[in-house]
Structure formats: structure tokens, C-alpha cells
Amino acid sequence: MASSLATLLPFLLYYGYHPNLAWLWLLVAILSVVLLGTGLAMLLSILSVHFIEIRPATELGIMLWFYATPIFYPASIVPPDLAWIPRINPAARIAEIARCALLFRVAPPLESVLVAVGCSLLVFVAGYALVLRLSATLADHVT
């Protein structure tokens, strides 16, 4: 996220989106992305060593998650019967935090911050705990 932000920043400045205090919420978004990504990497890597079937499911899951995250389309076009998906998706909440900070220049909704940070912390702690628990037998399962 930080590298894409470095690319986006000159365009934002050129089109008149100058920094303000709301941009500090980007730190929360970046921290959440790092925690979520690291936690998922730990979970999926340790599980893929122990269970070979995780690898193809991971590819499918990441692709579905990509399409379930409203980044290139607004969440308002999601059909009402599927509107629960962006609400529980931590990546959608992280995108909402960044969008509020950069484009709308306001503080994001507290619910989005709590869901994003909470899910990211939960995934990170779960991944770390699983790595600690299964790392002793890791060498036995590497093929």
C-alpha cells in the first residue's frame, strides 16, 4: 500500500488534494494492511506446508476476495442481498479508511476502523500462534 501511495501522491497533489489532518488515518490503513497481510501469509504458508490442498484453494480464495473488495467499483452498486460481504470484509474497510482520508478528507467511520484493525489484529495473532504451535514439526512436513 505504501508503494502505491507513493505513486498516487503526485497525482493527488496535482489535482488539488493537499495534505490535511485526515491523511493521518492513512497510518491506520497501512498498519492494518501490514498486519492483515502478515497474518494471512503466516497462516497460509504454515497451512500449505501441512496440508497440500490449501494451495489451489488459496488461489481461488484470493481471486474471490479481490472481486469482493469494492476498490474499483463503489460499494453502493452491490446488490442488497450481497451487501453483507463488504461489511465483513476487512480489506473493504481498509480501503474505506484510505478513501475517506485521501479523497473525502474526513475521518473514516469508527465502525470501519474497528473492523479493519480488529480483524487485522485477529488474523495476525492467529497466524503467529499457529506458526509458534506448528513450527516444531515444520521440517517433518516439507516435501
Radius of gyration: 18 Å
Question: Level of helix content?
Answer: over 70%
Strand content: under 5%
Query: pLDDT below 50 for ≥5 consecutive residues: which ranges?
Result: none
Number of strands: 0
Sequence of secondary-structure elements? HHHHHHH
Give the rounded overall mean pLDDT.
91
- Report the sheet with the most strands, covering strand number, pairing sense and barrel closure: none
Tell me which oligomeric state these chains represent.
Answer: single chain
Tally of distinct domains: 1
Structural class: mainly alpha
Count of DSSP helices?
7
Query: Span between N and C termini?
Result: 33 Å
Anisotropy-based shape: elongated
Attribute tags:
mainly alpha; 143 residues
Outline:
The protein is mainly α and 143 residues long. It is built from 7 helices and no strands. The two termini are 33 Å apart.
Q: Can you describe what's shown?
A:
The protein has one domain. By secondary structure, it is mostly helical. It is 71% helix and 0% strand.
